[in-house]
Amino acid sequence: MVVLLLLLSSAFFLVPHVLSSPIASFIETRQSITTLSPSAIAAFKPYTLYASTAWCNASVTLTWTCGRNCDANPDFKPVASGGNSDSVQYWYVGYDPNLNAVIVAHQGTDTSHLSLDANLFPNLSSDIKVHSGFKESQADTATTVLASVKSAMSTFSTDAVTIVGHSLGGAIALLDGVYLNLQLPSANINVITYGMPRVGNGAFADYVDAHVSVSRVINREDLYPILPGQFMGFHHCSGEKHILDSGEWLACPGHDNEDERCSAGNVDNIFEGNTVDHTGPYDGVEMGC
After folding, report:
1. H or E element that contains 213
2. In terms of DSSP bridges, do strands 91-96 and 129-131 run parallel, antiparallel, or are they unpaired?
3. pTM
4. pLDDT tens-digit profile, the chain (289 residues)
5. Cα 274 from chain centre
């Protein structure tokens, strides 16, 4: 976690020249903040557990013998797994018959805007920029994940694909969502992230909003989602679900809603953040294997 914080912070000073969109395009209109019902919160639980499971060794996610996390989703059918938790984050792909969906999960990490690889992300505007480290981490597994998702969709006759991840794994999951949406136009792609840092610029956030369904869950005063800083041109996509100290979940509209009940308004600088909140709990689930 310390390494991730240092690298995200250092990115502030690497790429001041890449800001390319008017700041006005990033400002969301004020919309109502709504409270999630208990049933809506409960619906996140299986995905939260899948994100937590991504911290487990690839050998145990392939056999689905990782203990409490795997036991909590006992009907899951693993298809592929990989990574070494060092140069490549752990990942796995499989099928949940209860959700009738292919699940893709990426591990978080202890881890400059760059354009996306046109071979992986064809026909995207050159105005769209993402953090170089996140881009490289997603590229490490992109084609293998794509092949595994195609196999699972065919085997289990489903077009639903949900990608999950915590921390860096959330950033990879978001990029996977964009990538798989481009590569699999017939698929129904959803992304659910936990404690995800900002991944790209405003043009990227706008693109995500237009093409991918995203829920990004932020726990209390978690520091990591406010990094890298907005003054460097980084912006979140929409879909924030903010967990308050009371345990209440709020849906906060816009890219970086500055209402004090939402993450960007509640933690408006690094001194107000709390790294302890990064791992959870997310409706009772602490991230980790």
Report:
1. strand 213-219
2. unpaired
3. 0.85
4. 433 443 344 343 223 223 333 333 334 445 699 999 999 999 999 999 999 999 999 999 999 999 999 999 999 999 999 999 888 999 999 999 999 999 999 998 643 455 677 777 787 787 777 777 888 889 999 999 999 999 999 999 999 999 999 999 999 999 999 999 999 999 999 999 999 999 999 999 999 999 999 999 999 999 999 988 888 889 999 999 999 999 999 999 999 999 999 999 999 888 889 999 999 999 999 999 9
5. 19
Taking each helix axis as running N to C, give the angle between helix 132-156 and helix 168-183, from 0 to 180 degrees, rounded to the nearest 10: 60
Query: What is the C-alpha separation between 227 and 92, in angstroms, rounded?
Result: 26
Cis peptide upstream of residue 38 (ω within 30 degrees of 0): no
The two counts, helices (H) then strands (E), for the chain are 9, 11
- Could you tell me where the DSSP H helices lie in 122-268? 132-156, 168-183, 202-211, 263-266
Query: 220-231 burial by CB neighbour count: b if 16+ within 10 A, else e?
Result: bbbbbbbbbebe
Return the SS3 of 272.
Answer: helix
80 within 8 A of 92, measured Cβ to Cβ: yes
Query: Is there a contact between 185 and 229 (Cβ–Cβ < 8 Å)?
Result: no
CA angle 186, 235, 54 (to 5 degrees): 60
